[in-house]
Design a protein that fits this description.
single chain, 610 residues, alpha/beta, Leucine Aminopeptidase, subunit E, domain 1, Aminopeptidase, 8-stranded mixed β-sheet, 6-stranded mixed β-sheet, 21 strands, hydrolase, aminopeptidase, Peptidase_M17_N, metalloaminopeptidase activity
Protein backbone atom coordinates (compact mmCIF):
# COMPACT_ATOMS: atom_id res chain seq x y z
CA UNK A 1 0.00 0.00 0.00
CA UNK A 2 1.25 3.49 -0.91
CA UNK A 3 2.04 6.10 1.76
CA UNK A 4 -1.01 8.44 2.18
CA UNK A 5 0.92 11.46 0.97
CA UNK A 6 2.07 9.63 -2.15
CA UNK A 7 -1.44 8.40 -2.86
CA UNK A 8 -2.78 11.95 -2.49
CA UNK A 9 -0.08 13.29 -4.81
CA UNK A 10 -0.87 10.62 -7.43
CA UNK A 11 -4.54 11.45 -7.19
CA UNK A 12 -3.79 15.16 -7.58
CA UNK A 13 -1.69 14.62 -10.69
CA UNK A 14 -4.41 12.46 -12.24
CA UNK A 15 -7.09 15.05 -11.35
CA UNK A 16 -5.14 17.96 -12.85
CA UNK A 17 -4.46 15.94 -16.01
CA UNK A 18 -8.16 15.16 -16.36
CA UNK A 19 -9.06 18.85 -15.96
CA UNK A 20 -6.57 19.83 -18.68
CA UNK A 21 -7.95 17.21 -21.09
CA UNK A 22 -11.53 18.22 -20.37
CA UNK A 23 -10.75 21.93 -20.78
CA UNK A 24 -9.00 21.30 -24.07
CA UNK A 25 -11.98 19.40 -25.51
CA UNK A 26 -14.47 21.96 -24.12
CA UNK A 27 -12.84 25.03 -25.69
CA UNK A 28 -12.08 23.22 -28.92
CA UNK A 29 -15.76 22.27 -29.32
CA UNK A 30 -17.01 25.69 -28.16
CA UNK A 31 -14.81 27.68 -30.53
CA UNK A 32 -15.66 25.68 -33.64
CA UNK A 33 -16.90 27.63 -36.62
CA UNK A 34 -20.60 27.92 -37.24
CA UNK A 35 -20.41 25.38 -40.02
CA UNK A 36 -20.41 21.76 -38.86
CA UNK A 37 -20.35 18.72 -41.05
CA UNK A 38 -23.50 16.73 -40.24
CA UNK A 39 -25.97 14.51 -41.97
CA UNK A 40 -29.72 14.59 -42.08
CA UNK A 41 -32.44 12.79 -43.91
CA UNK A 42 -34.19 14.93 -46.49
CA UNK A 43 -37.83 14.37 -45.80
CA UNK A 44 -41.05 16.33 -45.83
CA UNK A 45 -40.15 19.38 -43.75
CA UNK A 46 -38.31 22.70 -43.99
CA UNK A 47 -36.65 21.73 -47.25
CA UNK A 48 -40.11 21.13 -48.78
CA UNK A 49 -39.04 18.08 -50.67
CA UNK A 50 -40.17 14.48 -50.55
CA UNK A 51 -36.92 13.05 -51.83
CA UNK A 52 -34.80 11.20 -49.32
CA UNK A 53 -31.04 11.16 -49.25
CA UNK A 54 -27.99 12.59 -47.55
CA UNK A 55 -26.25 15.98 -47.61
CA UNK A 56 -24.12 18.36 -45.59
CA UNK A 57 -25.73 21.26 -43.79
CA UNK A 58 -24.66 24.22 -41.67
CA UNK A 59 -25.86 24.60 -38.11
CA UNK A 60 -25.39 27.35 -35.51
CA UNK A 61 -22.63 27.29 -32.92
CA UNK A 62 -23.68 24.81 -30.22
CA UNK A 63 -25.20 26.20 -27.05
CA UNK A 64 -23.25 25.78 -23.83
CA UNK A 65 -25.47 22.91 -22.70
CA UNK A 66 -25.06 21.20 -26.04
CA UNK A 67 -21.31 21.81 -25.83
CA UNK A 68 -21.23 20.16 -22.44
CA UNK A 69 -23.14 17.18 -23.83
CA UNK A 70 -20.71 17.02 -26.73
CA UNK A 71 -17.83 17.29 -24.29
CA UNK A 72 -19.18 14.46 -22.13
CA UNK A 73 -19.67 12.31 -25.22
CA UNK A 74 -16.14 13.12 -26.41
CA UNK A 75 -14.52 12.22 -23.09
CA UNK A 76 -16.59 9.04 -22.79
CA UNK A 77 -15.70 8.04 -26.35
CA UNK A 78 -12.05 8.84 -25.59
CA UNK A 79 -12.07 6.52 -22.57
CA UNK A 80 -13.64 3.69 -24.56
CA UNK A 81 -11.28 4.33 -27.46
CA UNK A 82 -8.27 3.86 -25.17
CA UNK A 83 -9.30 0.26 -24.51
CA UNK A 84 -10.31 -0.25 -28.13
CA UNK A 85 -6.95 1.01 -29.44
CA UNK A 86 -5.05 -1.06 -26.89
CA UNK A 87 -6.65 -4.29 -28.09
CA UNK A 88 -5.54 -5.26 -31.57
CA UNK A 89 -7.61 -7.62 -33.77
CA UNK A 90 -5.20 -10.52 -33.39
CA UNK A 91 -5.45 -10.19 -29.59
CA UNK A 92 -9.24 -10.17 -29.65
CA UNK A 93 -9.73 -13.27 -31.75
CA UNK A 94 -8.26 -16.66 -30.89
CA UNK A 95 -6.02 -15.36 -28.14
CA UNK A 96 -6.03 -15.68 -24.38
CA UNK A 97 -7.80 -19.03 -24.11
CA UNK A 98 -6.33 -22.38 -23.18
CA UNK A 99 -6.89 -24.80 -25.98
CA UNK A 100 -4.90 -27.95 -26.88
CA UNK A 101 -4.29 -27.24 -30.55
CA UNK A 102 -2.02 -30.27 -30.94
CA UNK A 103 -4.64 -32.81 -29.82
CA UNK A 104 -4.63 -35.92 -32.02
CA UNK A 105 -7.40 -38.37 -32.94
CA UNK A 106 -7.24 -42.01 -33.95
CA UNK A 107 -9.16 -45.28 -33.76
CA UNK A 108 -7.94 -48.64 -32.46
CA UNK A 109 -9.02 -51.84 -30.77
CA UNK A 110 -9.68 -51.57 -27.06
CA UNK A 111 -7.01 -54.17 -26.37
CA UNK A 112 -4.37 -51.97 -28.00
CA UNK A 113 -5.32 -48.85 -26.05
CA UNK A 114 -2.45 -47.57 -23.90
CA UNK A 115 -4.00 -44.42 -22.44
CA UNK A 116 -5.03 -43.45 -18.90
CA UNK A 117 -8.79 -42.76 -19.26
CA UNK A 118 -11.35 -45.23 -20.57
CA UNK A 119 -14.86 -43.87 -21.17
CA UNK A 120 -17.65 -46.42 -21.59
CA UNK A 121 -20.82 -44.93 -23.11
CA UNK A 122 -23.88 -47.17 -22.81
CA UNK A 123 -27.46 -46.94 -24.03
CA UNK A 124 -30.32 -47.15 -21.56
CA UNK A 125 -31.71 -50.60 -20.86
CA UNK A 126 -35.12 -51.44 -22.27
CA UNK A 127 -35.94 -53.30 -19.04
CA UNK A 128 -36.97 -50.73 -16.45
CA UNK A 129 -36.81 -53.28 -13.59
CA UNK A 130 -33.03 -53.69 -13.77
CA UNK A 131 -31.10 -51.89 -11.03
CA UNK A 132 -28.05 -51.54 -13.27
CA UNK A 133 -27.05 -52.25 -16.83
CA UNK A 134 -25.58 -55.50 -18.00
CA UNK A 135 -22.30 -55.00 -19.82
CA UNK A 136 -22.71 -55.61 -23.58
CA UNK A 137 -21.01 -58.78 -24.77
CA UNK A 138 -19.08 -56.90 -27.45
CA UNK A 139 -17.39 -54.91 -24.68
CA UNK A 140 -16.70 -57.92 -22.47
CA UNK A 141 -15.03 -59.71 -25.35
CA UNK A 142 -12.44 -56.92 -25.61
CA UNK A 143 -11.64 -56.66 -21.88
CA UNK A 144 -9.31 -58.91 -19.91
CA UNK A 145 -10.59 -60.52 -16.71
CA UNK A 146 -9.25 -57.78 -14.44
CA UNK A 147 -10.83 -55.03 -16.57
CA UNK A 148 -14.15 -56.92 -16.75
CA UNK A 149 -14.34 -57.13 -12.97
CA UNK A 150 -13.51 -53.44 -12.58
CA UNK A 151 -16.18 -52.29 -15.04
CA UNK A 152 -18.87 -54.67 -13.73
CA UNK A 153 -18.17 -53.68 -10.15
CA UNK A 154 -18.31 -49.96 -11.00
CA UNK A 155 -21.64 -50.29 -12.82
CA UNK A 156 -23.22 -52.24 -9.94
CA UNK A 157 -21.89 -49.96 -7.22
CA UNK A 158 -23.25 -46.85 -8.94
CA UNK A 159 -26.45 -48.57 -10.15
CA UNK A 160 -25.72 -47.09 -13.53
CA UNK A 161 -28.65 -47.45 -15.95
CA UNK A 162 -27.45 -45.46 -18.96
CA UNK A 163 -30.02 -42.67 -18.69
CA UNK A 164 -29.26 -39.78 -21.01
CA UNK A 165 -26.59 -37.51 -19.56
CA UNK A 166 -25.99 -39.61 -16.45
CA UNK A 167 -22.33 -40.11 -15.64
CA UNK A 168 -19.92 -41.60 -13.14
CA UNK A 169 -16.15 -41.62 -13.01
CA UNK A 170 -13.47 -42.73 -10.59
CA UNK A 171 -9.81 -43.58 -10.31
CA UNK A 172 -8.83 -47.26 -10.49
CA UNK A 173 -5.65 -49.33 -10.22
CA UNK A 174 -5.18 -52.28 -12.56
CA UNK A 175 -2.00 -54.35 -12.55
CA UNK A 176 -0.24 -54.34 -15.89
CA UNK A 177 -2.65 -51.79 -17.39
CA UNK A 178 -2.09 -48.14 -18.25
CA UNK A 179 -5.75 -47.32 -17.51
CA UNK A 180 -5.98 -45.19 -14.35
CA UNK A 181 -9.46 -43.69 -14.69
CA UNK A 182 -12.75 -45.22 -15.76
CA UNK A 183 -15.86 -43.23 -16.66
CA UNK A 184 -19.43 -44.23 -17.49
CA UNK A 185 -21.74 -42.10 -19.61
CA UNK A 186 -25.42 -42.66 -20.42
CA UNK A 187 -26.55 -42.34 -24.03
CA UNK A 188 -30.23 -42.81 -23.17
CA UNK A 189 -32.52 -44.45 -25.68
CA UNK A 190 -30.79 -43.43 -28.88
CA UNK A 191 -33.20 -41.92 -31.39
CA UNK A 192 -33.05 -42.93 -35.02
CA UNK A 193 -32.70 -39.38 -36.38
CA UNK A 194 -29.21 -38.12 -37.19
CA UNK A 195 -29.77 -34.75 -35.50
CA UNK A 196 -30.85 -36.41 -32.25
CA UNK A 197 -27.88 -38.80 -32.34
CA UNK A 198 -25.44 -35.95 -32.97
CA UNK A 199 -26.94 -34.05 -30.04
CA UNK A 200 -26.27 -37.01 -27.73
CA UNK A 201 -22.80 -37.54 -29.18
CA UNK A 202 -21.91 -33.89 -28.58
CA UNK A 203 -22.92 -34.28 -24.94
CA UNK A 204 -20.63 -37.32 -24.72
CA UNK A 205 -17.76 -35.28 -26.14
CA UNK A 206 -18.46 -32.53 -23.62
CA UNK A 207 -18.33 -35.09 -20.81
CA UNK A 208 -14.91 -36.33 -21.95
CA UNK A 209 -13.67 -32.74 -21.84
CA UNK A 210 -15.20 -32.29 -18.38
CA UNK A 211 -13.30 -35.32 -17.06
CA UNK A 212 -10.13 -33.98 -18.68
CA UNK A 213 -10.65 -30.74 -16.76
CA UNK A 214 -11.15 -32.70 -13.53
CA UNK A 215 -8.16 -35.02 -13.93
CA UNK A 216 -5.58 -32.90 -15.69
CA UNK A 217 -2.69 -35.35 -15.51
CA UNK A 218 -3.78 -37.87 -18.13
CA UNK A 219 -2.76 -37.40 -21.76
CA UNK A 220 -4.91 -39.95 -23.60
CA UNK A 221 -8.62 -40.81 -23.51
CA UNK A 222 -10.27 -43.85 -25.08
CA UNK A 223 -13.99 -43.88 -25.85
CA UNK A 224 -16.03 -47.05 -26.30
CA UNK A 225 -19.73 -46.82 -27.11
CA UNK A 226 -22.53 -49.33 -27.52
CA UNK A 227 -23.21 -47.79 -30.95
CA UNK A 228 -20.64 -50.20 -32.35
CA UNK A 229 -19.28 -49.41 -35.80
CA UNK A 230 -22.46 -47.71 -37.07
CA UNK A 231 -20.85 -44.28 -36.79
CA UNK A 232 -21.23 -41.84 -39.66
CA UNK A 233 -18.46 -39.38 -40.48
CA UNK A 234 -20.51 -36.41 -39.27
CA UNK A 235 -21.12 -38.18 -35.93
CA UNK A 236 -17.42 -38.85 -35.42
CA UNK A 237 -16.73 -35.24 -36.34
CA UNK A 238 -19.34 -34.01 -33.83
CA UNK A 239 -17.69 -36.00 -31.04
CA UNK A 240 -14.21 -34.70 -31.81
CA UNK A 241 -15.46 -31.12 -32.14
CA UNK A 242 -17.16 -31.19 -28.76
CA UNK A 243 -14.13 -32.66 -27.00
CA UNK A 244 -12.06 -29.74 -28.26
CA UNK A 245 -14.70 -27.11 -27.55
CA UNK A 246 -15.19 -28.38 -23.99
CA UNK A 247 -11.48 -27.78 -23.32
CA UNK A 248 -11.72 -24.17 -24.51
CA UNK A 249 -11.35 -21.44 -21.89
CA UNK A 250 -11.82 -17.73 -22.56
CA UNK A 251 -9.84 -15.49 -20.23
CA UNK A 252 -8.81 -12.76 -22.68
CA UNK A 253 -10.07 -9.88 -20.60
CA UNK A 254 -8.80 -10.92 -17.18
CA UNK A 255 -5.79 -9.11 -15.79
CA UNK A 256 -4.57 -12.32 -14.18
CA UNK A 257 -6.01 -15.48 -15.74
CA UNK A 258 -7.03 -18.13 -13.23
CA UNK A 259 -3.99 -19.94 -11.91
CA UNK A 260 -5.28 -23.38 -12.77
CA UNK A 261 -3.40 -26.08 -14.58
CA UNK A 262 -4.56 -26.58 -18.15
CA UNK A 263 -5.71 -30.09 -19.18
CA UNK A 264 -2.89 -32.18 -20.56
CA UNK A 265 -5.05 -34.19 -22.98
CA UNK A 266 -3.09 -34.90 -26.17
CA UNK A 267 -4.96 -37.81 -27.75
CA UNK A 268 -8.51 -39.10 -28.16
CA UNK A 269 -8.93 -42.66 -29.37
CA UNK A 270 -12.22 -44.20 -30.54
CA UNK A 271 -12.05 -47.80 -29.34
CA UNK A 272 -13.35 -49.45 -32.48
CA UNK A 273 -10.92 -50.03 -35.32
CA UNK A 274 -13.79 -50.11 -37.83
CA UNK A 275 -14.09 -46.33 -37.39
CA UNK A 276 -11.32 -44.97 -39.55
CA UNK A 277 -10.40 -41.64 -37.98
CA UNK A 278 -6.68 -41.37 -38.56
CA UNK A 279 -6.81 -42.29 -42.25
CA UNK A 280 -9.71 -39.98 -43.06
CA UNK A 281 -10.09 -36.22 -43.19
CA UNK A 282 -12.66 -36.22 -40.38
CA UNK A 283 -10.24 -35.21 -37.64
CA UNK A 284 -8.69 -32.44 -39.72
CA UNK A 285 -12.11 -31.18 -40.68
CA UNK A 286 -13.21 -31.19 -37.04
CA UNK A 287 -10.22 -29.05 -36.08
CA UNK A 288 -10.97 -26.58 -38.87
CA UNK A 289 -14.62 -26.27 -37.90
CA UNK A 290 -13.69 -25.77 -34.24
CA UNK A 291 -11.30 -22.96 -35.18
CA UNK A 292 -14.18 -21.16 -36.92
CA UNK A 293 -16.57 -21.75 -34.02
CA UNK A 294 -14.05 -20.41 -31.50
CA UNK A 295 -13.52 -17.33 -33.64
CA UNK A 296 -17.29 -16.78 -33.69
CA UNK A 297 -17.61 -17.33 -29.94
CA UNK A 298 -14.84 -14.85 -29.20
CA UNK A 299 -16.25 -12.18 -31.49
CA UNK A 300 -19.69 -12.48 -29.91
CA UNK A 301 -18.39 -12.65 -26.33
CA UNK A 302 -16.10 -9.62 -26.66
CA UNK A 303 -17.60 -6.41 -25.22
CA UNK A 304 -18.94 -3.66 -27.46
CA UNK A 305 -16.22 -1.20 -26.45
CA UNK A 306 -13.72 -3.63 -27.99
CA UNK A 307 -15.61 -5.07 -30.97
CA UNK A 308 -16.58 -1.87 -32.73
CA UNK A 309 -17.53 -1.74 -36.42
CA UNK A 310 -13.98 -0.62 -37.21
CA UNK A 311 -12.31 -3.45 -35.33
CA UNK A 312 -14.77 -5.95 -36.78
CA UNK A 313 -13.76 -4.82 -40.26
CA UNK A 314 -10.09 -5.18 -39.29
CA UNK A 315 -10.72 -8.76 -38.17
CA UNK A 316 -12.41 -9.43 -41.52
CA UNK A 317 -9.49 -7.96 -43.47
CA UNK A 318 -6.98 -10.06 -41.51
CA UNK A 319 -9.08 -13.13 -42.24
CA UNK A 320 -9.14 -12.32 -45.95
CA UNK A 321 -5.38 -11.81 -46.07
CA UNK A 322 -4.75 -15.04 -44.18
CA UNK A 323 -6.71 -17.13 -46.70
CA UNK A 324 -6.06 -15.20 -49.90
CA UNK A 325 -9.57 -13.82 -50.25
CA UNK A 326 -10.49 -10.60 -51.96
CA UNK A 327 -11.91 -7.95 -49.65
CA UNK A 328 -13.59 -4.58 -49.75
CA UNK A 329 -14.48 -2.31 -46.82
CA UNK A 330 -16.88 0.52 -47.69
CA UNK A 331 -16.85 3.61 -45.48
CA UNK A 332 -19.73 6.01 -44.87
CA UNK A 333 -19.07 8.16 -47.94
CA UNK A 334 -18.94 5.13 -50.24
CA UNK A 335 -22.19 3.80 -48.74
CA UNK A 336 -23.77 7.21 -49.35
CA UNK A 337 -22.77 7.01 -53.00
CA UNK A 338 -24.57 3.66 -53.16
CA UNK A 339 -27.68 5.22 -51.54
CA UNK A 340 -27.70 2.88 -48.54
CA UNK A 341 -30.13 5.10 -46.66
CA UNK A 342 -31.57 2.42 -44.36
CA UNK A 343 -28.15 1.23 -43.19
CA UNK A 344 -26.78 4.74 -42.73
CA UNK A 345 -29.96 5.83 -40.99
CA UNK A 346 -29.27 3.30 -38.23
CA UNK A 347 -25.55 4.10 -38.13
CA UNK A 348 -25.89 7.89 -37.85
CA UNK A 349 -26.62 7.86 -34.10
CA UNK A 350 -23.19 6.52 -33.15
CA UNK A 351 -19.80 8.19 -32.98
CA UNK A 352 -18.37 4.93 -34.32
CA UNK A 353 -18.24 5.08 -38.14
CA UNK A 354 -20.11 2.38 -40.09
CA UNK A 355 -18.07 -0.25 -41.94
CA UNK A 356 -19.59 -2.27 -44.78
CA UNK A 357 -17.68 -5.55 -45.05
CA UNK A 358 -17.38 -7.69 -48.18
CA UNK A 359 -15.04 -10.70 -48.49
CA UNK A 360 -14.93 -12.99 -51.51
CA UNK A 361 -13.66 -16.56 -51.56
CA UNK A 362 -12.87 -18.10 -54.94
CA UNK A 363 -11.37 -21.56 -55.56
CA UNK A 364 -7.67 -21.45 -56.39
CA UNK A 365 -8.10 -23.81 -59.31
CA UNK A 366 -10.90 -24.88 -61.59
CA UNK A 367 -14.02 -23.07 -62.74
CA UNK A 368 -16.58 -21.31 -60.57
CA UNK A 369 -19.82 -23.24 -61.06
CA UNK A 370 -21.84 -21.79 -58.17
CA UNK A 371 -22.00 -18.36 -56.56
CA UNK A 372 -23.50 -17.86 -53.12
CA UNK A 373 -23.65 -15.04 -50.57
CA UNK A 374 -23.78 -15.21 -46.78
CA UNK A 375 -24.92 -12.00 -45.06
CA UNK A 376 -24.59 -11.45 -41.31
CA UNK A 377 -26.32 -8.87 -39.17
CA UNK A 378 -23.54 -6.79 -37.61
CA UNK A 379 -24.95 -4.46 -34.95
CA UNK A 380 -21.97 -4.37 -32.58
CA UNK A 381 -24.15 -2.82 -29.87
CA UNK A 382 -27.90 -2.32 -29.88
CA UNK A 383 -29.26 0.19 -27.37
CA UNK A 384 -32.62 0.06 -29.13
CA UNK A 385 -32.23 3.68 -30.21
CA UNK A 386 -34.98 6.03 -29.05
CA UNK A 387 -37.16 2.97 -28.50
CA UNK A 388 -34.66 2.24 -25.76
CA UNK A 389 -34.23 -1.26 -24.39
CA UNK A 390 -35.25 -0.67 -20.78
CA UNK A 391 -36.59 -2.60 -17.85
CA UNK A 392 -36.31 -6.21 -16.74
CA UNK A 393 -35.84 -8.66 -19.58
CA UNK A 394 -34.54 -6.12 -22.08
CA UNK A 395 -31.09 -7.80 -21.99
CA UNK A 396 -29.42 -4.53 -22.96
CA UNK A 397 -26.24 -5.67 -21.18
CA UNK A 398 -26.05 -8.59 -23.63
CA UNK A 399 -26.57 -6.57 -26.79
CA UNK A 400 -22.94 -7.11 -27.71
CA UNK A 401 -24.25 -10.37 -29.23
CA UNK A 402 -26.36 -8.51 -31.80
CA UNK A 403 -23.53 -9.05 -34.27
CA UNK A 404 -23.82 -12.82 -33.84
CA UNK A 405 -24.94 -13.24 -37.45
CA UNK A 406 -21.84 -11.50 -38.75
CA UNK A 407 -19.67 -13.50 -36.36
CA UNK A 408 -21.16 -16.75 -37.69
CA UNK A 409 -20.54 -15.63 -41.26
CA UNK A 410 -16.91 -14.72 -40.50
CA UNK A 411 -16.45 -18.00 -38.62
CA UNK A 412 -17.76 -19.85 -41.67
CA UNK A 413 -15.37 -17.81 -43.83
CA UNK A 414 -12.47 -19.04 -41.70
CA UNK A 415 -13.53 -22.69 -42.04
CA UNK A 416 -14.12 -22.34 -45.77
CA UNK A 417 -10.70 -20.71 -46.09
CA UNK A 418 -9.20 -23.79 -44.43
CA UNK A 419 -11.23 -26.39 -46.36
CA UNK A 420 -10.89 -24.65 -49.75
CA UNK A 421 -13.99 -26.17 -51.41
CA UNK A 422 -13.80 -26.28 -55.23
CA UNK A 423 -16.35 -25.04 -57.78
CA UNK A 424 -18.03 -22.50 -55.50
CA UNK A 425 -17.49 -18.76 -55.00
CA UNK A 426 -18.67 -17.38 -51.65
CA UNK A 427 -19.35 -13.76 -50.73
CA UNK A 428 -19.34 -12.83 -47.04
CA UNK A 429 -21.17 -9.56 -46.38
CA UNK A 430 -21.98 -7.50 -43.27
CA UNK A 431 -23.22 -3.94 -42.76
CA UNK A 432 -21.54 -3.16 -39.43
CA UNK A 433 -22.63 -0.30 -37.17
CA UNK A 434 -24.03 0.54 -33.75
CA UNK A 435 -27.62 1.47 -32.90
CA UNK A 436 -27.25 4.32 -30.44
CA UNK A 437 -28.98 7.39 -29.05
CA UNK A 438 -27.60 10.87 -29.75
CA UNK A 439 -28.54 14.19 -31.27
CA UNK A 440 -27.87 12.64 -34.68
CA UNK A 441 -29.78 9.39 -34.12
CA UNK A 442 -32.73 8.48 -36.30
CA UNK A 443 -36.18 8.89 -34.78
CA UNK A 444 -39.41 6.93 -34.66
CA UNK A 445 -41.44 8.28 -37.56
CA UNK A 446 -38.48 8.94 -39.85
CA UNK A 447 -38.58 7.79 -43.45
CA UNK A 448 -35.48 6.10 -44.86
CA UNK A 449 -34.77 5.06 -48.41
CA UNK A 450 -32.99 1.81 -49.19
CA UNK A 451 -30.56 1.39 -52.06
CA UNK A 452 -33.25 -0.25 -54.21
CA UNK A 453 -35.38 2.90 -53.93
CA UNK A 454 -37.98 1.56 -51.50
CA UNK A 455 -38.89 3.84 -48.62
CA UNK A 456 -39.38 2.65 -45.05
CA UNK A 457 -41.29 4.36 -42.26
CA UNK A 458 -39.46 3.79 -38.98
CA UNK A 459 -42.09 2.72 -36.47
CA UNK A 460 -39.59 1.32 -33.99
CA UNK A 461 -35.88 2.19 -33.83
CA UNK A 462 -35.24 -1.13 -32.07
CA UNK A 463 -36.12 -2.97 -35.28
CA UNK A 464 -32.85 -1.77 -36.80
CA UNK A 465 -31.33 -5.06 -37.92
CA UNK A 466 -33.75 -5.51 -40.81
CA UNK A 467 -32.90 -1.99 -42.02
CA UNK A 468 -29.18 -2.74 -42.25
CA UNK A 469 -29.88 -6.14 -43.81
CA UNK A 470 -32.14 -4.53 -46.42
CA UNK A 471 -29.26 -2.62 -48.00
CA UNK A 472 -26.94 -5.62 -47.61
CA UNK A 473 -29.41 -7.86 -49.48
CA UNK A 474 -29.72 -5.34 -52.32
CA UNK A 475 -25.91 -5.10 -52.47
CA UNK A 476 -25.48 -8.89 -52.62
CA UNK A 477 -27.91 -9.26 -55.49
CA UNK A 478 -26.18 -6.49 -57.44
CA UNK A 479 -22.80 -8.26 -57.29
CA UNK A 480 -23.75 -11.06 -59.66
CA UNK A 481 -26.41 -13.65 -60.35
CA UNK A 482 -26.43 -15.66 -57.13
CA UNK A 483 -27.37 -19.31 -56.75
CA UNK A 484 -28.46 -18.43 -53.23
CA UNK A 485 -28.37 -15.61 -50.71
CA UNK A 486 -28.65 -16.49 -47.02
CA UNK A 487 -28.79 -13.92 -44.24
CA UNK A 488 -28.11 -14.85 -40.60
CA UNK A 489 -29.30 -12.52 -37.87
CA UNK A 490 -30.22 -12.14 -34.22
CA UNK A 491 -33.33 -10.46 -35.55
CA UNK A 492 -36.36 -10.91 -33.31
CA UNK A 493 -37.31 -11.74 -29.75
CA UNK A 494 -40.43 -13.30 -31.25
CA UNK A 495 -38.42 -16.28 -32.51
CA UNK A 496 -37.30 -17.01 -28.94
CA UNK A 497 -40.92 -17.08 -27.81
CA UNK A 498 -41.82 -19.37 -30.72
CA UNK A 499 -38.90 -21.82 -30.68
CA UNK A 500 -36.98 -21.28 -27.44
CA UNK A 501 -33.19 -21.35 -27.16
CA UNK A 502 -32.40 -24.66 -28.85
CA UNK A 503 -33.86 -24.04 -32.31
CA UNK A 504 -33.24 -21.28 -34.84
CA UNK A 505 -36.03 -20.42 -37.25
CA UNK A 506 -35.49 -20.15 -40.98
CA UNK A 507 -37.52 -18.96 -43.96
CA UNK A 508 -36.89 -19.68 -47.63
CA UNK A 509 -38.51 -18.41 -50.81
CA UNK A 510 -37.72 -21.61 -52.75
CA UNK A 511 -38.40 -25.21 -51.79
CA UNK A 512 -35.07 -26.48 -53.13
CA UNK A 513 -33.12 -24.06 -50.93
CA UNK A 514 -35.25 -24.95 -47.91
CA UNK A 515 -34.46 -28.62 -48.47
CA UNK A 516 -30.74 -27.83 -48.79
CA UNK A 517 -30.76 -25.98 -45.46
CA UNK A 518 -32.71 -28.79 -43.81
CA UNK A 519 -30.22 -31.39 -45.01
CA UNK A 520 -27.24 -29.28 -43.95
CA UNK A 521 -28.59 -28.67 -40.46
CA UNK A 522 -29.39 -32.35 -39.91
CA UNK A 523 -25.97 -33.40 -41.11
CA UNK A 524 -24.11 -31.07 -38.74
CA UNK A 525 -26.57 -31.31 -35.84
CA UNK A 526 -27.54 -27.64 -35.56
CA UNK A 527 -31.28 -27.43 -34.90
CA UNK A 528 -33.27 -25.36 -37.40
CA UNK A 529 -37.04 -25.21 -37.84
CA UNK A 530 -38.68 -23.98 -41.02
CA UNK A 531 -41.11 -21.09 -40.53
CA UNK A 532 -43.79 -19.95 -43.00
CA UNK A 533 -43.72 -16.90 -45.27
CA UNK A 534 -47.37 -15.94 -44.80
CA UNK A 535 -48.18 -13.41 -47.51
CA UNK A 536 -51.27 -12.19 -45.64
CA UNK A 537 -49.00 -10.90 -42.85
CA UNK A 538 -47.42 -8.48 -45.31
CA UNK A 539 -50.50 -6.32 -44.81
CA UNK A 540 -49.19 -5.35 -41.35
CA UNK A 541 -46.08 -3.82 -42.95
CA UNK A 542 -47.94 -1.42 -45.23
CA UNK A 543 -47.46 2.28 -44.54
CA UNK A 544 -49.69 5.17 -45.56
CA UNK A 545 -46.74 7.49 -46.19
CA UNK A 546 -43.99 5.10 -47.37
CA UNK A 547 -43.59 1.80 -49.16
CA UNK A 548 -43.13 -0.18 -45.93
CA UNK A 549 -43.18 0.05 -42.15
CA UNK A 550 -40.20 -1.53 -40.40
CA UNK A 551 -42.45 -3.44 -37.97
CA UNK A 552 -45.97 -4.83 -38.05
CA UNK A 553 -48.22 -5.77 -35.16
CA UNK A 554 -47.38 -7.91 -32.14
CA UNK A 555 -48.60 -11.14 -33.71
CA UNK A 556 -46.21 -13.10 -35.93
CA UNK A 557 -43.30 -10.73 -35.36
CA UNK A 558 -40.57 -13.02 -36.67
CA UNK A 559 -42.63 -13.84 -39.78
CA UNK A 560 -43.25 -10.16 -40.48
CA UNK A 561 -39.51 -9.50 -40.17
CA UNK A 562 -38.76 -12.21 -42.74
CA UNK A 563 -41.41 -10.79 -45.08
CA UNK A 564 -39.82 -7.35 -44.72
CA UNK A 565 -36.44 -8.74 -45.79
CA UNK A 566 -37.98 -10.54 -48.75
CA UNK A 567 -39.00 -7.15 -50.15
CA UNK A 568 -35.32 -6.43 -50.83
CA UNK A 569 -34.63 -9.58 -52.87
CA UNK A 570 -35.68 -9.44 -56.52
CA UNK A 571 -35.27 -12.92 -57.89
CA UNK A 572 -32.46 -14.80 -56.15
CA UNK A 573 -33.08 -17.94 -54.11
CA UNK A 574 -33.03 -16.47 -50.60
CA UNK A 575 -33.26 -17.67 -47.01
CA UNK A 576 -33.27 -15.93 -43.66
CA UNK A 577 -32.05 -17.61 -40.46
CA UNK A 578 -33.02 -16.00 -37.14
CA UNK A 579 -30.54 -17.06 -34.44
CA UNK A 580 -31.74 -14.70 -31.69
CA UNK A 581 -32.51 -17.64 -29.40
CA UNK A 582 -29.47 -19.78 -30.15
CA UNK A 583 -26.62 -17.25 -30.23
CA UNK A 584 -26.10 -17.16 -26.45
CA UNK A 585 -25.99 -19.79 -23.70
CA UNK A 586 -27.40 -18.18 -20.56
CA UNK A 587 -26.30 -20.98 -18.22
CA UNK A 588 -22.69 -20.72 -19.34
CA UNK A 589 -22.91 -16.96 -19.92
CA UNK A 590 -21.10 -17.46 -23.21
CA UNK A 591 -21.63 -17.41 -26.96
CA UNK A 592 -22.49 -20.69 -28.69
CA UNK A 593 -20.94 -20.25 -32.14
CA UNK A 594 -24.27 -21.32 -33.65
CA UNK A 595 -24.60 -21.13 -37.43
CA UNK A 596 -21.02 -21.80 -38.49
CA UNK A 597 -21.52 -25.52 -39.09
CA UNK A 598 -24.72 -25.08 -41.11
CA UNK A 599 -23.23 -22.41 -43.37
CA UNK A 600 -20.16 -24.56 -44.05
CA UNK A 601 -22.37 -27.56 -44.90
CA UNK A 602 -24.46 -25.43 -47.27
CA UNK A 603 -21.33 -24.17 -49.00
CA UNK A 604 -19.99 -27.70 -49.44
CA UNK A 605 -23.32 -28.94 -50.77
CA UNK A 606 -22.99 -26.42 -53.61
CA UNK A 607 -19.34 -27.35 -54.06
CA UNK A 608 -20.15 -31.03 -54.58
CA UNK A 609 -22.88 -30.44 -57.15
CA UNK A 610 -22.01 -31.55 -60.66
Amino acid sequence: MKHPAKRFRSFGVAWVSSVLVVSHHFWRNFSKSTSRCCYYKRSIGPTKTCSIGWKYYSCPRPQSLRSFGSLYSTVLSFRCKMLHDAVQPQKVVENGHRFPRNIEFRSDKLGNFGGELMVVALEESQKQSEESLAIPSQLLDQLDKQQQEAVQSFIKETRFQGKLGSSQYQRIFLLGSSIRYIALYGLGKMESGNTEKIDVIRKLGGFVGQVAQQYKSFTSAGIWTSMGSSWKDEQVQALLEEVMLSLYKDDRFKKSPEETEAPNLKEVCLLDDDIQVQSSSVATRAKNVVSGIIMTKELVSAPANVITPTLLSQVAVQLAKQYGMEYKILDKEQCQQMNMGCYLGVAQGSSEPPQFIHLKYSPAQGPVKKKIAFIGKAITFDSGGYNLKAGAGSMIELMKFDMGGCAAVLGAAKVIGELKPPNVQVHFIAAACENMISGNAYHPGDILQASNGKTVEVINTDAEGRLTLADALVYAEQIDTMDCIIDVATLTGAIIIALGNDYAGYWANQEALAQRIETASKRCGEKLWRMPLVNEYLESLKSKIADLRNVGGRAGGSIAAALFLREFVKQSPWAHIDIAGTVWNEKQSAATGFGVRTLVEICESFSHEQ
